[in-house]
Write a structure and sequence with these properties.
- The chain folds into two domains: 141 residues, HAD superfamily/HAD-like (Rossmann fold, 3-Layer(aba) Sandwich); 60 residues, DNA polymerase, domain 1, CATH 1.10.150.
- The radius of gyration is 17 Å and the shape is globular.
- With 216 residues, it is an alpha/beta fold.
Length: 216
Amino acid sequence: MSLPLPSAVVWDMDGTLIDQTASILRCYVEVIKRMGQPAPDNKEIHRSMGGPMAETMARFVKPQQLEEACATFRTRFPQIMFEGLIILPGAADLIAFFAQNNIPQAILTNKHGATARAVSTHCGFANQIHLCIGNTDTQWSKPDVNLTRHVFAQMNAEPEGAALVGDSPTDGETARNAGINFYGVSTGAHSQAELAEAGAAYTCADLRDLLEQFSR
């Protein structure tokens, strides 16, 4: 099979373009322990990610600790965020392919906005994806349709014919709310079966597969 070229592409970041799991999990565990709470299992943290950091943190600290825990995370994470960072297979090539075909692209993530842009620059994504919007950049977070509308306005693109590439059910809900295709890649915490259940029009093991489908 082959897939039609999208009119515009919205990218998720963590688990889709990059694997930053090691440093993220390390930071959660450090902060949660600093709050005097027991260190959770890494798998439990990993499965709870996808939304804003505060939503994950709220699962492991007391409500009265949440504000301090989130502030501590935002201070600590930039100090370690490039340790063990992996650009996932096919990411750079698929970004370049869309750029060569003059397809507008944006990164939309629930990662803190300033952190996401630092990662995008570090990985070279910013050379071809000039728009990167993250948590706290607006009043919204994924899967709010107001956020995707904002992104399309910033891209000067229309949702019709567009696609979101991501690795989680949150990405599927984001795409569904915006009325765009969702292509699911199982390089994060969720399987292809889970992504299909979340509404993916196509699922793949990694972005090299997706590139092959678009370039046939």
